[in-house]
């Protein structure tokens, strides 16, 4: 069983489409929506002493406890030994002013250290600044994607979701979504999968640009920790305090499948 932990419902919608397009045989995949931010999860883990010594944590048990406190029994019957891989997807949310930015950066650094292995505590993926970065694009493929940034000040003045709506070539998320409850024909499946593959190339190449100044697919895996560290030094800590817009779902797909996933760009069959 693969456990997927998301910050909110929008994340789950996107991943349900990813699962249908790229993991059609993995029916054991289990989805859990946490419905809170990464910093809230940090505080919960801190209470369990998981953070204090960067100890190995029983992620399933901790999340089960958190959800049960909210009246959510999603994980009630799931045991740790039933879960082979754990992936967590959260937003950077640097515009969140409930704590100083420096404090949140420190927390996230610790979380990325704790959650760096999907077969152990879990592997954490971060969206910059939010999951809506997935739609911050002109018509796909967008050759300028590597240039896009957003400042902290702009995110405070205008919600990033609004910025995405104003900027995106696409009027909704339909170009990335296949409805789980509906029969979807090959043309829609093919077109949607192709859009995701363009995003895989764009986001993975951009992660390489952020870390190595090369807007091209990397020759070796770029860790989430390295992306975060370079976001801090090259963007967040600069005078205008910004982030390089980046989404973790396409990067997850590249990490999971490797370069072979890009072969789909030259394939007319979306299930190959």
Summarize the structure in words.
By secondary structure, the protein is an alpha/beta fold. It has one domain (2-266). 42% of the residues lie in helices and 11% in strands. The protein is built from nine helices and seven strands; from the N terminus they run βαβααβαβββααααβα. The chain has helices spanning 9-22, 38-47, 59-69, 101-114, 152-157, 160-167, 186-212, 224-236, 248-257; strands at 2-6, 30-33, 85-91, 116-117, 122-127, 149-151, 242-244. The strands form two sheets. A five-stranded mixed sheet has the order 2-1-3-5-4. It has a two-stranded antiparallel ribbon with strand order 6-7. A hairpin with a 4-residue loop joins β4 (116-117) and β5 (122-127). α4 runs antiparallel to α8 (224-236), α7 crosses α8 (224-236) and α7 packs across α9 (248-257). The radius of gyration is 18 Å and the shape is globular. Residues 268-272 have low confidence and may be disordered.
Q: What is the topology?
A:
Blueprint: E1 2-6, H1 9-22, E2 30-33, H2 38-47, H3 59-69, E3 85-91, H4 101-114, E4 116-117, E5 122-127, E6 149-151, H5 152-157, H6 160-167, H7 186-212, H8 224-236, E7 242-244, H9 248-257
Parallel strand pairs: 1-2, 1-3, 3-5
Antiparallel strand pairs: 4-5, 6-7
Helix pairs in contact: 4-8, 7-8, 7-9
